[in-house]
């Protein structure tokens, strides 16, 4: 819980206490320094910091002097519950925070501060702390934000190369209107949280993720589908990318944005998804595939060109669609499949998961009871049973109702456990 100490050592309540860990405990026990630099985009880091706090983190702001032209110290204190660090004094804050905190996020990061970090010009608290954290082997994330002509310069590329060599994680900006823009604060927080929690334990691996719903068309304007939002697949994609993997996201219709830093392939029908996945596997070595998508199981035997006139009674003959995961069985390093079921007991869920594991040769099955209250399609939660292989044994873990952010981490942790033979 975030508190301010009074002069008499008594703990004083602060409003951040009400939101601390209110969404989930992904970052429980973590202390994160958020470094702010003089960019108009600095206001976005207020929301990003609150995102981290809602996942259980304690956040401390460190800022360069130009930041105060855009946001005030009172706002930074209100947002975090801790007085921000603007100037370095005799208390060696960069050492105490480096020892006591778990990582640092510099967002937004101007070219000036990035250059200072790269070349060791430590004349402000942000560059000083970032170099201290990196030098002690603690994770540092930066989010560049600037005009595109600066990002397109050789100076920027040299600086980024040096920072990457120093082990600093770069979350790329979104390029729009000739500006390298600060991405959505929640996406920055999500990617940074995964990296700060696990490092790059997936570096060198290629992860293929399927997500969202496919559509099977009755005519030119009507289709059969399902309420999948694509959120589970996006969570896995962000988690895997942040942990160092190259990620390919094959997705149908989604209600959430796909992350801009992963490779994306948009598909329409279930057959489209199967063919796209097949091409990707044929042309790439896929170390892990996580099949979170909800492809439509049936398609009309015939699709009408144009629009069927309304008011008529229609008789539809539906035929099964081709199974996407059948095209990948035995062709990827590790396979994770989802089983969406409506069951009355954990035993029924185990049976459904075991059937999927045997049918597709999956290493991990995420069986979720979509009939559970407050979980399933369109929700931030799933009611889950994990089934996975440990050498010759099958391990089952009833996770119950779990936030999809945390489930994404558990899935990839489990896959790495399977790969290592643990």
Task: Describe this structure as you would to a colleague.
By secondary structure, this protein is an alpha/beta fold. The protein folds into two domains: 191 residues, Rossmann fold; 215 residues, CoaB-like (Rossmann fold), CATH 3.40.50.10300. The chain is built from twelve helices and 22 strands. The strands form six sheets. An eight-stranded mixed β-sheet has the order 15-14-11-16-19-20-21-22, with helices on both faces. Helix 1 crosses helix 8, helix 4 packs across helix 5 and helix 8 packs across helix 9. It is globular, with a radius of gyration of 24 Å. The N terminus is likely disordered.
Keywords:
422 residues, alpha/beta, Rossmann fold, 2 domains, eight-stranded mixed sheet, five-stranded parallel sheet, 12 helices, 22 strands, 32% helix, 24% strand, globular, disordered N terminus
Number of strands: 22
Strand content: 15-25%
Which CATH architecture of the largest domain is right?
3-Layer(aba) Sandwich
Radius of gyration: 24 Å
Figure out the total of helices. Answer: 12
Total domain units: 2
Give the overall pLDDT as a whole number: 93
CATH superfamily label of the largest domain: CoaB-like
Give a summary of the structure in a few sentences.
With 422 residues, the chain is α/β, with parallel strands linked by helices. The protein has helices at residues 44-54, 73-80, 93-100, 111-119, 125-135, 148-151, 154-165, 185-198, 231-242, 270-283, 346-360, 404-420; strands spanning 4-5, 11-12, 31-36, 58-63, 103-109, 140-144, 146-147, 169-170, 174-176, 179-181, 206-211, 216-217, 223-224, 246-251, 263-266, 288-291, 298-300, 318-320, 334-341, 364-369, 381-390, 393-403.
């Amino acid at each position: 819980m975030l508190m301010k100490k009074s002069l008499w050592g008594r703990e004083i309540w602060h409003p951040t206490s009400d939101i601390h860990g209110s969404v989930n405990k992904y970052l429980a026990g973590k202390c994160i320094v958020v470094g702010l630099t003089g960019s108009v985009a600095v206001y976005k880091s207020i929301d990003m910091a609150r995102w981290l706090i809602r996942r259980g983190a304690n956040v401390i702001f460190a800022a360069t002097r130009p930041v105060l032209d855009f946001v005030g110290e009172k706002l930074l204190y209100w947002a975090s519950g801790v007085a921000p660090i603007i100037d370095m004094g005799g208390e060696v804050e960069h050492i105490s925070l480096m020892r006591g905190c778990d990582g640092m996020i510099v967002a937004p990061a101007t070219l000036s501060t990035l250059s200072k970090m790269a070349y060791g010009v430590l004349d402000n608290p942000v560059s000083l702390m970032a170099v201290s954290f990196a030098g002690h082997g603690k994770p540092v994330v930066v989010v560049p934000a600037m005009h595109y002509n600066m990002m397109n310069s050789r100076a920027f590329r040299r600086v980024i190369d040096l920072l990457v060599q120093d082990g600093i994680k770069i979350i790329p900006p979104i390029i729009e209107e000739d500006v390298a823009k600060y991405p959505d604060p929640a996406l920055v927080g999500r990617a940074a949280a995964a990296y700060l929690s696990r490092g790059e334990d997936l570096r060198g691996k290629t992860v293929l993720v399927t997500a969202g719903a496919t559509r099977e068309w009755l005519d030119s304007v009507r289709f059969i589908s399902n309420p999948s939002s694509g959120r589970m697949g996006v969570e896995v994609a962000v988690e895997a990318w942040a942990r160092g993997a190259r990620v390919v996201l094959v997705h149908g219709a989604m209600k959430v944005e796909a992350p801009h830093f992963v490779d994306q392939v948009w598909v329409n029908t279930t057959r489209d998804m199967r063919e796209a996945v097949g091409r990707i596997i044929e042309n790439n070595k896929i170390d892990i595939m996580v099949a979170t998508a909800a492809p439509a199981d049936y398609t009309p035997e015939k699709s009408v060109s144009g629009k069927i006139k309304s008011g008529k009674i229609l008789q539809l003959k539906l035929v099964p669609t081709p199974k996407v995961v059948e095209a990948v069985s035995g062709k990827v390093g590790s396979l994770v499949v989802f089983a969406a079921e409506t069951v009355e007991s954990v035993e029924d869920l185990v049976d459904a998961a075991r059937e999927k594991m045997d049918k597709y040769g999956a290493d991990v099955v995420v069986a979720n009871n979509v009939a559970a209250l407050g979980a399933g399609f369109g929700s931030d939660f799933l009611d889950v049973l994990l089934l996975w292989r440990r050498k010759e044994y099958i391990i089952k873990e009833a996770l119950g109702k779990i936030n999809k952010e945390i489930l994404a981490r558990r899935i990839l942790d489990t896959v790495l456990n399977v790969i290592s033979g643990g």
